[in-house]
Amino acid sequence: MKKAFVLVVLFVFPLVAYLFFASGVNNFGKLPILTENIPSLETIDTKLTLDDKITILGFIGNDVKGRKGNAFNLNQKIYKRFSKFKDFQMVILVSKGSEAEVQSLKKELGTLSDVEKWNFAFASDAEIASFFETLDVNVNLDKNLSTPYVFIIDKDRNLRGRNDDEDEGVKYGFNTSSVAELNNKMEDDVKIILAEYRLALKKNNANRSN
Q1: Residues 74-129 pLDDT 10s
Q2: Residue 2 falls inside a structural domain
Q3: Rounded-to-integer distance, Cα 89 and Cα 75, Å
Q4: From the CB of residue 185, how many other CB atoms can be counted at a distance below 10 Å?
Q5: What count of Cα atoms within 13 Å lies in the side-chain half-sphere of residue 133?
Q6: Is residue 96 a part of any domain in this protein?
Q7: From CA 135, how far away is CA 36, in angstroms rounded?
């Protein structure tokens, strides 16, 4: 009896667990599209693109110092974990005239991680407000054209989020003021979208080899 129990624990249970999680990835492994066709960034910064990138998009506006803590939370909990992925990037919209403050922020972030994929796009206040409106989300920019929320944009320039979040119902963005939210929700959702593209790539490669 003991041997049978040991065999179940060692072999059967891991197999059942694998099948459970594999089923979960297949059935629940896609983040819903909440807003389609986010505009291209090239009109603001010709060196940046959202196409073919998994982008974490944020808005600091003219409050670089006030959002420093949010940037550090995002860097430690999300950026450092996923920055090694080839198509991953951060894009933060900042008001023109804040260049020196951004350089200081990047220098501080650089003491903690490689900041190669931290991108800051400098825009007029009108451009920031207009671009934010296209996201069609349920949060607003403050008077400084800033928000603690960041958004996941997929490779086709669609905003991804949750339509069945246990706390908010529809969840468009992630509050970088909350380490718990970054740990418990955003990290999972970034993992899901990365897994989604990896699975699609494997299928394409398999189809080509057939």
Answers
A1: 999 999 999 999 899 999 999 999 999 999 999 999 999 999 999 999 999 999 99
A2: no
A3: 12
A4: 20
A5: 6
A6: yes
A7: 8
